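Sat 14:20. Reprocessing the chain from the morning session after the first attempt stalled halfway. Input below, unchanged.
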Amino acid sequence: MSFQFVGGVQPESVHIYVVYDGKSGVIAHVHHILTFAGAAEATAREEENRALEVAGQHGARLQGLKVLRVDAYDAAKSMTVDVRKKRLVEATPEKAKAAAKKRKKKK
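Finished this time. Tokens:
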């Protein structure tokens, strides 16, 4: 995901975290943390905690959720986490359907 900012100001860093079910790998929330010049950089733990906090604010049940920092996230694809390898992968059609059904239930 790329960001555009007024006046061309660009962040010094962009960190992406996925909050996912630790058993199934289904993603509950994708969180971006942008740090601009002059701002204090948060620790990885603080960023992970913030990702979980926001996931909860958006209705995710936090029990059993885990957080994974990733280099990139393609929102145009259905993604999941390989829980054994702890990496982001494109979801199988079955997992994509299960995730969509779960999201629909929450609303």
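Residues 10-106 form one domain.
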